[in-house]
Amino acid sequence: MKRRDFLSRSGAAIGATGLSAPALLSSTRWAYAANGTIPVGLLFSLTGAVAVVESTLHDAAQMAIEEINAAGGVHGMKLEPIVEDPASDPATYADRARRLMIRDKCVSVFGSYTSASRQAVLPVTESRKNLYWYPTLYEGRECSRNVMYGGAVPNQQQDLLIPWALEKFGPRFYMIGNNYVYPKEENNYCKTLLEKLGGTVVNEEYVPLGHSDFASVINRIRAEKPDVIFSTVVGDSDVAFARQYHAAEFDPADMPVVSLTRSEVEVKAIGGEAAAGHYSSAPYFMGHDTPENKKFVEAYQKKYGADAVTHFVNEAAYFQVYQFKAALEKLDPSQITPEAIRDAAVGITLNAPQGEVLIDENLHTHLWPKIGQWQADGQAKVIVDSAERVAPKPYAAYEGQSCTGQGLVKA
Amino acid sequence: MDVLFNQLFSGLSMASILLVIALGLAIIYGSMGVINLAHGEFVMLGAYATWAMQTYFGFSILVALPFVFLAVALVGWIIELVIVRRLYRRPLDTILATWGIGIILQQAVRLGIGAESRFVKGPGILDGNVVIGNVVMSNYRIFVILFSIGVLAATWALMTKTEFGMKLRAVIQNRGISECYGIEASRVYSLTFAYGAGLAGIAGALITPLYSTIPTMGTSLVVDAFLVVIVGGLGSLIGAAAAAVMIGEVTAVFSMVMNDTLGRIAVLGCIILLIRFRPRGLFPETVRR
């Protein structure tokens, strides 16, 4: 073949594929709910660094799917969970999300614990016009039309907590967090609240992820004598911090750690003795006393062992599947597409273990903030329960910006 | 001023932990030339052994220490026998092999025991703090400092005062000639590797009440241990001790004047500079290979 021939032919071929691509897309209008099953993706890491927590989200979502199928499914169709393990690696999340959304034709994908993995999936779910159900509390400042946010944003964790802590313990806050986006955004919001309430920040400090020697942080705390330690330290760092804080013999009654990130999972590793007396703010605690929660905890422990714990992220992973089901029920089976599910989901209320939750038109969830005090048995006692359901404001720290049903609006 | 003294104590405490972690590595790396990337996993095994003994037999950490030492030493001995022994003449391959061993150990613990963080109770008699003026020192950390000095002294005595130490030093200097004199070099190496592993196990046991016990805990610790060994100079016990104190104190002072994140960066920067001007560390041993 002459070079010129080759060029013209390959050019023609490229032209042809270029032309046929849109036709290909429109001709295969996906029948999302074919064959009597509704495929849903489960994209939680079962291996790798964050698997410790994330596998419990998988377990909770899996349990919800099994419960729904056992009760007859939706429109007589069973939910068909398709499990992928992205192994704690953000790039793999994007890859597996693509696989679930394109090859497996999932109408929705449930997944992610970390913000990094959610952000990796974001362009995939947006370009595929799919729906990604994200159960974790996060830093806000995001407003995708293709993500359903089931966890708390800063205003839902702090509006109740900060005034209470300031009133009860005093105005001097010491901020300690891991060095990444979540703690920084939470601290940003906390500072705007403290400014309004007349509190002060005595120190704002970030340690690397996985940091385990808090001796110098504790020395600084000792020197500053703040009223409240406002903690956004996560995972193993939090375990080390809590144990060393306890070993330093600080009294939680006059210098408590109030944490946005410490859940039953961390407390199990910290040990009840070291965790006792400190506080966490979250919409859900395992010890929360409602019939829905009792049922949830019993079913969970029956399935995954008597020492399994439920916490504020896997509770959301659980109720999000039910929100998904409720949205499906509002649709005619022939109309099931991810975006139709999204539009149907807005406004749905549901009795979750934490209380009745509502999906806002900005796709975040109205939740019931609570403050729990950790007890020596490793459970939190809910000592302040929000009187009303709190609306999600993902841009609360940014004046003039808000997340609405039309996406991000800047004033 | 109190802040400084508190911080210096923190530095010393950090140094003592670094020292017990690095000492085993210094011996294995320094005397045998094996770059043992599985060292962090030996530390992890020590932590899990402590957890297991506390959970199943009710041993406190102090009681468990000798058993942990023996258990991890046994693991090290087996690994030396099965894998490392075949690679003494190929030092670069030991990096790959020990890295692989590390991954296998980590995943084995993850699959067998579970990935979640385990709780180990600190020894009750060492709860509390010693307070001098405004300087507050945790009893447990004081214990770790004293213990690490003890381990250093014991290791030094083992290397210089015993017949085993003499044989080891002979083998290090010239393996062939020592074998001619009837020293069983392979046995000496086995025991040295086992001893180094056992020390790592002790380090793991000591840090359980302070850190969190997870399968991946060794990964970051092995980096610190290598920093200590490289700064101290290969095979030098005194070098390892000096380097541990230096790194601990410099980290503490930097994290006082800046913060922990910048402090860490500054320490790594200092080490790079030091290696630039003293490539063989603070106390290089002159060893003929």
TrEMBL record, chain A:
Q: Which GO terms describe its molecular function?
A: amide binding
BP terms from Gene Ontology: amino acid transport
Protein name per UniProt: ABC transporter substrate-binding protein
The organism named in the record is Brevirhabdus pacifica
A Pfam match:
Peripla_BP_5
Signal peptide, first to last residue:
none
TrEMBL record, chain B:
Task: List locations, semicolon-separated.
Answer: Cell membrane
Q: Name one GO molecular function term.
A: transmembrane transporter activity
One Pfam entry for this protein is BPD_transp_2
Stated membrane topology is: Multi-pass membrane protein
- Indicate yes or no for the key word Transmembrane helix: yes
Q: Name one GO biological process term.
A: amino acid transport
Q: Which UniProt keywords apply?
A: Amino-acid transport, Cell membrane, Membrane, Transmembrane, Transmembrane helix, Transport
The organism's superkingdom is given as Bacteria
Please provide, in alphabetical order, the Gene Ontology terms of the cellular component aspect for this entry.
plasma membrane
Query: Where would you say this protein principally sits, based on its record?
Result: membrane
Q: Which CDD domains has this protein been placed in?
A: TM_PBP1_LivH_like
Q: Which family does it belong to?
A: Belongs to the binding-protein-dependent transport system permease family. LivHM subfamily.
Its protein name is Urea ABC transporter permease subunit UrtB
Taxonomic source organism: Brevirhabdus pacifica
